[in-house]
Write a structure and sequence with these properties.
Layout (H helix, E strand, L loop, with lengths): L18 H6 L1 H4 L7 H13 L12 H12 L6 H5 L21 H13 L9 H26 L1 H12 L2 H6 L6 H18 L6 H14 L14 H10 L7 E2 L9 E2 L3 H19 L16 H15 L17 H11 L2 H20 L6 H19 L12 H25 L9 H21 L7 H12 L5 E5 L18 E5 L7 H13 L2 E4 L3 H5 L8 H12 L4 E7 L4 E2 L2 E2 L17 E6 L5 H15 L1
Parallel strand pairs: 3-4, 3-5
Antiparallel strand pairs: 1-2, 5-9, 6-9, 7-8
Helix pairs in contact: 3-7, 3-8, 4-6, 6-7, 7-8, 7-10, 7-18, 8-18, 8-19, 10-11, 11-13, 15-16, 16-17, 16-18, 16-19, 18-19, 21-24, 23-24
GO molecular function, one term: pentosyltransferase activity
Organism: uncultured Thermomicrobiales bacterium
Protein name: Glycosyltransferase RgtA/B/C/D-like domain-containing protein
């Protein structure tokens, strides 16, 4: 099955006899031969396992820290009845010391089981099974891109899409942490791939498998209950092609035929898929329900309260410190800008959006109702872009479930370009093939994406910047010194082997608190006692100035700190950028979550002789007065 986007151009290689032309595009067509998608997956797996134990047990990703804490604490209930009893199950995070758990439980349970088998189930190594599962699941997403792309748009499109996703920065990053992101993206993509292959077949197994994938996707990330809608695509496509009569089991003689029953399996198969999805979610996310029996579908009030809180946070009605970074961000534009510049890289990002535009154009210009597979792939991508792009939180990782299908669309774009170049080559056989944009642009896109992905992976072959900064502190900061850190960010120094954190006095500066005269007095008093100020990322000093009406004094504080006017001098600065062949890519302009987890910028300032509490007070109080 292929959609109407496929044309003869993508299948003409067997008919091309010109040797020069074959050599010109050999590097693009070679991977399309049978079995070559497996080496692509092997490379993807290698990139995702590179430095898999990186970062030690410092847990600089807050979600990974939380997931590990929960995984270490929960225990097996010992029976199915105990597993389903929400109020008493020791596997239920709510029954421990955690009052909130908004993540899916399927990746948590899978990591817990793998940790118990491998002996990695204590704080310090309990994150490793989760990282292994993230890396394996994300490699599965690469294979699924090949499967979907080949089915819809041809083998070359599928291969190119898989190559691009294998080297996609955001996927490589997600694979290196124990979170639910990589697993949920894989299961959502598996739902689409399985239901795509189930369409048009009379068997029920693929429908059931698709339902299982959809249920587990929702049990990995609750907002992926949306994946249940994908299960209806074969039914809608069958209705588009043959009308309602083609999917309804009815006596054939009602339509002037004999009295045998005319039956299509699409409707019952779709119902089966939905049935399996519901039960997969019920069993893999058991504490979304109150229990205590298997057939109890009453929702757990703790779970629904959790979801409602984070829905309000996404809408901006809850005031949280991390949300300040989203102030004055352009709807949709911001999330697409980060997708193109950082999440995928310019080449792949532009190709993916061009593929989306191509599919949308075919949908809106179709003379009859377009293929539901095209509507499904475009709708899935557009929903994620528009929903998260217009909400308060515009984190790039929220788009991860849409990235595999965006990779399919990028592969479609490159396939169309190559088909265009081949048609042009037959009309102008004497001109150099490499000059044609249809060959040149795909080459640039693929090579640039590969280089970016490899460069980003080198981050995981180096020490985390917070570890390096901690080593510097232990070597250069005298014992007994007072170190000021920042509230809501990691405090340094980290606890390193053989080093005594207790030799320093540390305390956080609560700079997220709304500016006031009281805050100013507290800050000056703390700075008076401080020998060193440590900024362990750009989280505060990049976000707080976005709200000068709320933080006029704190904005002035950072400006004075960086210029030396505050009376502190910068003595150390640590960065770790994506780097290849000695060329570093400065990505400090990327959205916060793309840098602060794995390679944050760290700055250390030391109090100088220029410090004066009176001068600092007048400087900051003046800004406070102007802001008010």
């Amino acid at each position: 099955m292929r959609t109407e986007l496929t044309d003869a151009g993508s299948g003409t290689s067997a008919r091309v006899t010109d040797r020069t032309r074959r050599r010109t595009v050999r590097w693009l067509t070679l991977p399309t031969r049978a079995g070559c998608h497996l080496p692509i997956a092997a490379v993807a797996l290698a990139l995702r396992f590179a430095g898999i134990g990186w970062g030690g047990n410092h847990y600089t990703h807050p979600d990974e820290l939380f997931m590990t804490m929960v995984a270490v604490e929960i225990r097996s209930p010992g029976s199915l009845g105990g597993y389903l009893d929400t109020a008493t199950s020791p596997l239920n995070p709510y029954n421990g010391r955690f009052t909130s758990y908004v993540y899916g439980t399927f990746p948590l349970f899978a990591a817990k089981l793998l940790g118990a088998i491998t002996g990695n189930d204590v704080f310090g190594n309990g994150h490793l099974p989760g990282r292994w599962l993230s890396a394996i699941a994300d490699t599965g997403s690469v294979l699924l891109v090949y499967v979907i792309g080949r089915r819809l748009f041809g083998r070359l499109a599928g291969t190119l899409g898989a190559v691009l996703l294998a080297f996609t920065m955001l996927h490589i990053q997600a694979s290196h942490f124990f979170t639910t992101d990589a697993m949920s993206a894989f299961l959502a993509t598996a739902t689409f791939a399985l239901i795509l292959h189930a369409g048009g077949r009379r068997g029920f197994a693929l429908y059931a498998a698709a339902g299982l994938a959809a249920g587990l996707a929702a049990a990995s990330k609750p907002n992926l209950l949306l994946a249940f809608g994908l299960l209806a695509l074969p039914l809608l496509e069958a209705i588009r092609i043959g009308g309602w009569r083609s999917v309804m089991p009815v006596p054939a003689n009602l339509f002037g035929r004999d009295d045998r029953w005319r039956s299509s399996p699409v409707l019952p198969a779709t119902l089966l898929a939905g049935f399996v999805a519901i039960w997969a979610f019920r069993l893999a996310q058991p504490y979304a329900f109150a229990g205590p029996t298997l057939f109890s579908f009453r929702l757990n009030p703790q779970w629904t309260t959790d979801l409602a809180f984070w829905q309000r946070a996404q809408a901006g009605t809850v005031d949280l410190p991390p949300s300040i970074q989203w102030a004055e961000r352009a709807p949709v534009v911001f999330i697409l800008d980060n997708l193109v510049r950082w999440g995928m890289g310019p080449g792949m990002g532009i190709a993916a959006l061009a593929g989306l535009a191509l599919v949308l154009w075919r949908i809106v210009t179709a003379q009859s109702w377009p293929s539901w597979w095209l509507v499904g792939i475009a709708g899935w991508v557009l929903f994620h872009i528009l929903f998260f792009g217009t909400g308060l939180g515009k984190a790039q990782r929220y788009l991860l479930p849409a990235y595999p299908l965006l990779a399919v669309l990028a592969g479609l774009t490159l396939d169309r370009l190559i088909a265009w170049a081949r048609r042009w080559g037959r009309r102008a056989p004497r001109l150099p093939r490499w000059l044609h944009p249809g060959y040149l642009l795909p080459t640039i896109v693929v090579i640039s994406t590969i280089l970016y992905g490899v460069a980003f992976t080198t981050i995981f072959t180096r020490e985390h910047t917070r570890v390096v900064a901690s080593e510097w502190i232990f070597s250069n900061v005298p014992p007994g010194s007072t170190i000021a850190t920042e509230y809501w960010d990691f405090g340094l120094p980290l606890a390193l082997p053989g080093e005594d954190v207790g030799q320093y006095q540390t305390f956080p500066l609560d700079l997220y608190k709304t500016d006031s005269a009281e805050k100013l007095s507290t800050l000056i008093g703390q700075l008076n006692q401080t020998d060193y100020i440590v900024l362990s990322s750009n989280r505060l000093f990049e976000s707080i100035p976005r709200m000068p009406w709320r933080y006029p004094m704190t904005t002035a504080y950072y400006e004075a700190l960086f210029t030396g006017k505050l009376g502190f001098e910068r003595v150390a600065h640590f960065t770790s950028f994506p780097e290849l062949f000695g060329v570093a890519l400065d990505d400090r302009g990327a959205e916060e979550s793309l840098t602060v987890y794995d390679h944050p910028e760290v700055l250390i300032f030391r109090k100088s002789a220029a410090w004066s509490d009176d001068a600092a007070w007048y400087l900051l109080n003046d800004a406070l007065g102007r802001g008010g």
